[in-house]
Amino acid sequence: MSPTERRDFIYRHLHEHQTVLISQLVELLNVSHMTVRRDIRILEEEGKVVSVTGGIQLNDAIRQELPWSEKALINHRSKRILGKYAASLVKDGQVVYLDAGTTTFEIAQKLSERFNLTIVTNDFSITQYLMDKPQLNLFHTGGLVDKRNYSCVGNSAAMVLRNLNIDIAFISTSSWDLEHGISTPHEEKVFVKQTLLEISRRNILISDSSKYGKYGMFRVCSLSNLNDIICDEKLPLLVRQQLQELNLNLHIVNV
């Protein structure tokens, strides 16, 4: 495994486990403590991780997201259950927006079994999956291609959305909390998400709890701009209580 591959593995492993001991990385990678510490130093210089006693954890300030193919491997069972729950909120005949993401892909899989729906998305993976479902109407936004996330972003994608009436939008994110709201490390994603908040009748954030407490450079909106949040039961109780004070619907799903 090359140094770049090792560092990619460490960063991906942290997204799933939040905090990892150096001794665990030594065993997993089958390399020396010195090699792991050298990789960690580079990841720290890149702003991706921070050191804690005996190990490392993700930096709360997200500088870069994992590519779609790697995100799909993380917390897959939780995403599948959250996706199934989210799909149950969709009514026949609705126009549904699925934001780019691996959890929204799980929603698409459940909605593919339905009839009389129109699906709008900026995600190529969702589009490809639904392409051979003739009972569904399917729209892709087009726009600037984000190759890492298999999606379209930017103002051109947002302009397409402005011509549509969306009944229910499922919004994804890599980072969210009460202080920073929904945020992203990539400015181009802001245009699409903010447009959805304007045009959709019901905006639902869907995210597993591992993304709570993280924030990116670019702010999308405060959580009070949402109608609903779908998350798993690992979201801290105090956070749940604070969210319920925002006059939105909080759906806690056991995963």
CATH architecture of the largest domain: 3-Layer(aba) Sandwich
* Overall helicity: 25-40%
- Provide a count of the helices: 10
Number of discrete domains: 2
Structural category? alpha/beta
CATH top level of the largest domain is: Alpha Beta
Spell out the helices and strands N to C: HEHHEEHHEHEHEEEHEEEHEEEHE
Low-confidence spans: pLDDT under 50, at least 5 residues?
A: none
CATH T-level topology of the largest domain: Rossmann fold
User: How do the strands of the widest beta sheet line up side by side?
Assistant: 6-5-4-9-12-14-15
Distance between the termini: 33 Å
Q: Biggest sheet, in brief? A: 7 strands, parallel
Overall, the morphology is globular
Say how many strands there are. Answer: 15
Protein name: Glycerol-3-phosphate regulon repressor
GO molecular function: DNA binding; DNA-binding transcription factor activity
InterPro entries: Carb_Metab_HTH_regulators, DeoR-like_C, DeoR_HTH, NagB/RpiA_transferase-like, Tscrpt_reg_HTH_DeoR_CS, WH-like_DNA-bd_sf, WH_DNA-bd_sf
Domain HTH deoR-type: 3-58
